[in-house]
Automatic annotation (TrEMBL):
MF annotations from Gene Ontology: electron transfer activity; heme binding; metal ion binding
Keyword field contains Iron: yes
NCBIfam families: c3_cytochr_TmcA (NF045722)
Taxonomic placement: Bacteria, Pseudomonadati, Thermodesulfobacteriota, Desulfobacteria, Desulfobacterales
The record's free-text note on cofactor binding: Binds 4 heme c groups covalently per monomer.
Protein name according to UniProt: Tmc redox complex, acidic cyctchrome c
Class III cytochrome C domain boundaries: 43-128
CDD domains the UniProt entry points to: Cytochrom_C3
Residues given in the record as heme c 3 binding sites: H114
Entry keywords, A to Z: Electron transport, Heme, Iron, Metal-binding, Transport
Cofactor(s) required, per the database record: heme c
C-alpha cells in the first residue's frame, strides 16, 4: 500500500515538473522586443511592442528562420534556425561591438519586411510607441 502511494506521488511530481517546463517562459509570452544588449545602455527609445505569435500569425510567416536565421560562409542555411538566441548573440560580438550595427540589423529585418510587403509599421513612432 505504502509503495503504491509513493509511486502515485512520484508520477504526480514528474507530471508537475513537466507542466512547469512546458508552461515556462516562451515566445508566446513575448510582448515587446527587448534585446538584453540594450539593457545595459540608457534605453533611448521605448521598447517595441511585438506580440510574437500573434504577429507571425497575422503576417503569415511560416518559417521561424525568416527571423531566427543561421548563416554558413555568408549564405543563409535554409533548414536551420536559431530561435532561443537573441539577435545580439551574433550581431553584437567582441569583433563587432557597435550597438548601431545591432540597431541596423533589427531595423533592416523588421522594417525591411514591412516595406517589402507594404504592411506593418515603418515610422519611428509607430514601433517605438510611448
Ligand atoms: C518576425 C520575426 C520572427 C519570427 C518569424 C519568429 N520569431 Fe521568435 N523572436 C523574434 C524576436 C524579435 C524575438 C525577441 C528578441 C530576441 O530574443 O532576440 C524572438 C524571440 C523568440 C524566442 C525567445 C524567447 C525568450 O525566452 O527570450 C523564442 C524561443 C522564439 N522567438 C521562437 C520562435 C519560433 C519557434 C518561431 C517559429 C514558429 C519564431 N520564433 C519565429 C522574432 C521572430
Ligand atoms: C546564429 C547567429 C545569428 C543570429 C542569432 C541572428 N543572426 Fe542575423 N545574421 C547572422 C549572420 C552570420 C549574417 C550574415 C553576415 C552579416 O551580414 O553579418 C546575418 C545577417 C543578418 C541580416 C542581413 C544584414 C545585411 O547587412 O544585409 C539581418 C537584417 C539580420 N541578420 C538580422 C537579424 C535579427 C533581427 C536577428 C534576431 C531575430 C538575427 N539576425 C539573429 C547571424 C545571426
Ligand atoms: C517577414 C516579414 C516581417 C518581419 C520580418 C517583421 N514583420 Fe512586423 N508585420 C509584418 C506584416 C505583414 C504585418 C501586417 C500584419 C497585418 O496586420 O496584416 C506586420 C505588422 C506589425 C506590427 C503591427 C501590429 C501587429 O502585430 O500586427 C508591428 C508592431 C510589427 N509588425 C512589428 C515588427 C517588429 C518589431 C519586427 C522585427 C522584430 C517585425 N515586425 C518583423 C511582417 C513582418
Ligand atoms: C518596424 C519597427 C521599427 C521601426 C519603424 C523603427 N524601429 Fe528602432 N528599433 C526597432 C527594434 C525591434 C529595436 C530593438 C529594440 C530592443 O531590443 O529594445 C529598435 C532599436 C532602436 C534603437 C536602439 C535601442 C533603443 O531603445 O534606443 C534606436 C535608437 C532606434 N531603434 C531608433 C529608431 C528610429 C530613430 C527610427 C525611425 C527612423 C526607428 N527606430 C524605427 C524597431 C523599429
Amino acid at each position: 500500500m505504502k509503495k503504491k502511494n509513493l509511486m502515485v506521488y512520484m508520477v504526480f511530481m514528474v507530471f508537475v515538473s513537466v507542466v512547469a517546463v512546458i508552461s515556462g517562459f516562451s515566445q508566446e509570452d513575448i510582448t515587446t522586443v527587448q534585446d538584453s544588449a540594450f539593457d545595459i545602455r540608457e534605453i533611448m527609445r521605448p521598447s517595441v511592442p511585438f506580440l510574437h505569435d500573434e504577429h507571425n500569425e497575422k503576417a503569415q510567416i511560416e518559417e521561424c528562420n525568416v527571423c531566427h536565421h543561421t548563416y554558413n560562409e555568408g549564405k543563409k542555411v535554409e533548414d536551420e534556425s536559431s530561435e532561443g538566441m537573441e539577435c545580439s548573440a551574433c550581431h553584437l560580438t567582441e569583433k563587432n561591438d557597435d550597438p548601431i550595427e545591432l540597431v541596423r540589423v533589427y531595423h533592416l529585418q523588421c522594417k525591411g519586411c514591412h516595406e517589402q510587403k507594404n504592411a506593418g509599421p515603418v515610422m519611428c513612432g509607430e514601433c517605438h510607441v510611448k
